[in-house]
Structure formats: structure tokens, C-alpha cells
UniProtKB/TrEMBL annotation, chain A:
Identification of the protein by name: Molybdopterin-binding protein
Residues of the Oxidoreductase molybdopterin-binding domain: 99-242
UniProtKB/TrEMBL annotation, chain B:
Family that this chain belongs to: Belongs to the HupC/HyaC/HydC family.
One GO process term, biological-process aspect: respiratory electron transport chain
Pfam families assigned to the protein according to its UniProt record, in alphabetical order: Ni_hydr_CYTB (PF01292)
Primary localization class, coarse: membrane
Name of this protein: Thioredoxin reductase
Single GO MF descriptor: iron ion binding
Organism: Telmatospirillum siberiense
Signal peptide: none
Amino acid sequence: MTTPRRRSQQDLSVHKRQVENLQRRLLLKEMLSLGALGMLAGCDLQDGDAVDKVLWTMSRWNDRVQAKLFSRTRLAPTYEASRITRPFPFNAFYPEYDAPDIDGAAFRLQLSGKIDDKRAWTLADLRALPQSGQITRHICIEGWSAIGEWRGVAFRTFLERIGADMTARYVGFKCADKYYSSLDMETAMHPQTLLALDFGADPLPAEYGFPLKLRVPTKLGFKNPKHIAEIFVTNDYPGGYWEDQGYNWFSGV
Amino acid sequence: MPVHPLPIRVFHWLNAFAMTCMATSGWAIYNASPLFGFTFPAWATLGGWLGGAVAWHFAAMWLLAGNGLFYLAYGLASGHFRRRFLPLSPSGIMTDLLAALKFRLPHEAGTYNAVQRLLYILVLLLGVLAVASGLAIWKPVQLWWLSAAFGDFATARYVHFLAMAGIVGFVAVHLILVVLVPRSLLPMLTGRHSSSHEVSS
Ligand code: HEM
């Protein structure tokens, strides 16, 4: 098995050099003809070619830069109730009528990973914790933004209550609609990060994430998971539904 | 003395590449949620899908901003800006604008007329505006003061788009002029005049 393989690798390396030379000349020509972009336009993070690798590497670099820029104490701007966007836009990877239909009375929030007390939580348990809220701007990666009001439990309070390992790197979320995402611990502990139960004065409606949504005004919208079914704390990078396809993981604002 | 010193040529072509990436990936991002009643044709966009476009935008921005900073530092420190872009007076602009409209403005490689000087300064400022408004919509919380300088996130987004439109408008005119005066292209590649003009230089 090994010999033919090695021989073909040698042949390949010669070919590779020739192809590389050719490519270099072609690239130069392309640059001059300003046609280079036509060649690059197909690179979209999906097929693992060389340009995709550069884009992924830059995205990891941007994660690090953003973690440095992030301040634990800097608060997202808050707004007057009169600025709230009505109607608030619906957004998900499926149409509105497919939003999961969840029975609040039977609901149990599951906990796993580096957490001392993994007892499941009912909605009544969560409502018994101190409630707070803010009116903040939700910013979507698509470019639109909308101002909304969310209320619930300060996520840091919740993490403390369940004995989460606050020295772990990530908090992950699994959702009832098969969505999943994760946050850095710093952002999870930010004073405005909220385990939201209410949208405005009422419990979250189905389209905005009933029964539980994480509201993170220091992140883009897709890092605000809805219909949360399970929360876990881990040191192993958990990724996310969009993150695994190429959205930048940190995506702070 | 070359018409365009080597650093300027390197800055110019790196910027051309970075700007093209930024504008075409920006158009793809714009298409995901258009600010106005039109979208950009898919063939003119970079990235294939929103995630790809955003990845391009946030990768090429480092090249754009890094190259831009070195260019500004070089231009100021070496006297290049002073020599090429100054002096600039309203009357000089009027005279040269009229001459240009009558197609009587000569092209001298390496010496810019008043209209060119004005446009080059304006597009530099538009570049700074695109970067500043870009940072304001990238980090509206961490760089809240920058966002506030443009109003808020939503208004900064319009400023960012308009800065792009201004730059693209400049590039369109710039390319038309290169087509009209093709001998201006070679010096930006090689630094030298094309041979037929070597004698006069
Ligand atoms: C350091 C420089 C820059 C930064 C940090 C930056 C950042 C951004 C950000 C954060 C967005 C919104 C992305 C989203 O909604 O997911 C954006 C959109 C966009 N950018 Fe930039 N950008 C920069 C430079 C430029 C330049 C130089 C151009 C054009 C020449 C450009 C053109 C655009 C366009 C057309 C959009 C879409 C506008 C919209 O619909 O919101 N950007 N940019």
C-alpha cells in the first residue's frame, strides 16, 4: 500500500510545483485584469479550499480581538419604552408557523456539564428568582436592528445559583427547535445578560422564544438562543448552529 | 525619480484589492437586509452567502485598515501628500474644472491638477469615514462613543453605506479616466513613464 502511494505523492509534488507556478502566473494576470474577484467569489467557507482556510483563520483571530475589546462592565445602551420597535421582527432558520409549541407547565430546563446542582428547573422556579430587565437594541448579522424589552433572571445570578464553574470557558445552549449556540464565560457573566422569561410585560410568545430565551445585548442576534431546553458549562468548544457553518463565533457588538 | 514611488504603488494595489473585497462583500451583506429599494446583482457580490460575505468583510478589513494606516503614515512623513495634494485653492479648482469639462486639461504623470487633488483628498476622507462608520456598526456597544458620533447604530449604517457609494463613485470616474488616458496606467504598475514619453520626462 505504502510504495505506490509514496510514488504517486512524488509525482504529485512535481505536478504541484508546476501547477503552483502556473497558478502564480495566472494569479498575477488575474490581478492585473481585475478579474481576481471572479475567481475568489466562489470561496464561501463551505468547501475547505485554501481561501476558506484563510477566512476561517481570520475569523478565529477576530474572536481573539473581540474578546480583548469586550468589557465586562461596559453596558449596551438602553432606551425609553417609546423607542420599542412594534411589531418586533420575527427571525429564525425556519418560518414563523414552525416555531415550536411548548407546554409551559410540563417544561423542565435541563442542566449539564460543569455545574454543581444539575436539578432541572420549572418555569415557576425561575420566576421565584429576582427578576429584572432592560430595553436594548437587538442587532442582526443581516444588518437590521430592533429595540425590544426583555425581562427575566440575570444570567450571572442563575449561574451562581446552580453552582456553575465560572472558571470554565464556555456556556452552551441546546434549544427545542434544534438550534444550538454558545457564549464565552465573560459575556455570560455580563450584567445585562439575561435568562429572559418575558417579552415586554408578557411571557415570551412562541415566535420570540417561549418559554426561555437568552438575551445578550452585547452579541449579535443569532447568539441569543430561543426555546432553550438545556444549558451546559464546558471547556470544550461547543460551536453553534450558524457558527459551525461560518458565522464568526464571538460576534460581539 | 519614478513617477510613483514603490511604496505608493504597493499601497495603491493592495488598497484596490482590499477595497474591491470590502465593497463586493458589503453588497452581499446589504442584500440580506437592504436599506433602500434595490439590491446588488449576485454576480457582483463576494462570499456566496451571508456568512461568507461577513467573513470576507472582517478578513479584508485588516488588510484595508493596516495598509491604509501605513499609507497615511508614509504620506504624511515623506511629504508625499504635501507635494502631490497641495497647494489647493478654490480658484485653482474652478480653472481646472472648466478646463476639464472642455477636455483641455493635460495629463502630466505624477503632477495632479486641482480637480484631481480635490478628488484624491475627498476619497481619502471617504475611506476614513468608511472605516470609522464600519467600526461604529461593528462595535456599537464596546465603541459606543464612535457609534454615538454617527447618531446611533441605525444611522451609522446609512453613513457606512453612503461612504461606500462615494468611494465606488470615485472609482468609476477614476477607471473612466484611466481608459481615456491609458498611458497613466503603466506608471502605477512599473513606476516609470511608458517609453514613448521617456524623452519628455
Ligand atoms: C475597517 C473597516 C470596516 C469595518 C470595520 C466594516 C464593518 C462593517 C460591518 C460591521 C457591517 C455590517 C455587517 C452586518 O450587518 O453583519 C458592514 C457592512 C457593509 N460594509 Fe463595511 N466595514 C469596513 C469597511 C468598508 C468599506 C471600505 C466598504 C466599501 C468600500 C464597506 C462596505 C460595506 C457595505 C456596502 C455594507 C453593507 C451595508 C449595510 O447594508 O448595512 N465597508 N461593514
